[in-house]
């Protein structure tokens, strides 16, 4: 019995000394030996959301700077009206449901979305985009042609005539492009 007791005390002492040694080793680890995790400073505000997963192999960040991008307000209004006359009353009830979309800044989206349920543009939207592109192209050609009439006037300016000619052509092209887009949108009722 004494032998068993001395054997148990000896084994327990060896295990206790080993634990103390391991704890001392872990406490004295230098900063270079400890696993280094990145310090992540994510800007956060009223409309931000983020999720960070950090482990020894690296890190993964999911960050939304303007979340939610669109705020939705839904309202229902019920109206009851009674019309009482000489021969009695008549009651009518009406109901109105309204859904508004807002941006984070508070601007209301009046037109709603121009996309169908699959997220694609409608045929009318595509037609308007094509019409505006054609108007820009045609307007740029017309603007350049009109501006080229002034080339003899500005090319005679000493030292910078060649540069002023380029500016005149570019200005005519830009003004013609913008004007063509506006005219095309008005003409096609976009």
List the helices and strands and how they pair.
Blueprint: H1 2-27, E1 49-55, E2 58-64, E3 71-85, E4 88-102, E5 108-109, H2 123-147, H3 151-155, H4 161-187
Antiparallel strand pairs: 1-2, 3-4, 4-5
Low-confidence region ranges:
none
Number of domains: 4
Structural class: alpha+beta
Q: How many H/I helical runs?
A: 4
Task: Jot down its keywords.
44% helix, three-stranded antiparallel beta sheet, alpha+beta, 4 domains, two-stranded antiparallel ribbon, single chain, 190 residues, 4 helices
Summary, kept brief:
The chain has about 190 residues and is of the alpha+beta class. The chain is about 45% helix and about 25% strand.
Question: Care to describe what's here?
Answer:
This protein has 190 residues and is α+β, with helices and mostly antiparallel strands. The protein contains 4 helices and 5 strands. It has helices at 2-27, 123-147, 151-155, 161-187; strands at 49-55, 58-64, 71-85, 88-102, 108-109. Strands 3-4-5 form a 3-stranded antiparallel beta sheet, with no helix packed on it. The chain has a two-stranded antiparallel ribbon with strand order 1-2.
């Amino acid at each position: 019995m004494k032998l068993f007791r001395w054997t148990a005390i000896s084994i327990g002492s060896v295990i206790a000394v080993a634990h103390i040694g391991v704890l001392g080793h872990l406490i004295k680890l230098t900063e270079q030996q400890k696993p280094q995790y990145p310090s992540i400073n994510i800007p956060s505000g009223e409309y931000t959301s983020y999720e960070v997963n950090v482990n020894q192999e690296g890190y993964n960040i999911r960050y939304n700077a303007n979340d939610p991008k669109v705020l939705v307000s839904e309202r229902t209004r019920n109206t009851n009206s009674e019309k009482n006359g000489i021969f009695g009353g008549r009651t009518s009830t009406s109901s109105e449901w309204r859904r508004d979309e807002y941006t984070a800044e508070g601007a209301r989206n009046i037109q709603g979305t121009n996309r169908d349920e699959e997220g694609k543009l409608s045929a009318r939207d595509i037609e308007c985009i094509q019409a505006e592109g054609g108007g820009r192209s045609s307007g740029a050609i017309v603007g350049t042609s009109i501006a080229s009439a002034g080339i003899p006037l500005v090319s005679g300016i000493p030292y910078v005539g060649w540069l002023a000619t380029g500016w005149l052509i570019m200005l005519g092209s830009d003004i013609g492009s913008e004007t063509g887009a506006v005219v095309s949108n008005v003409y096609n009722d976009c």
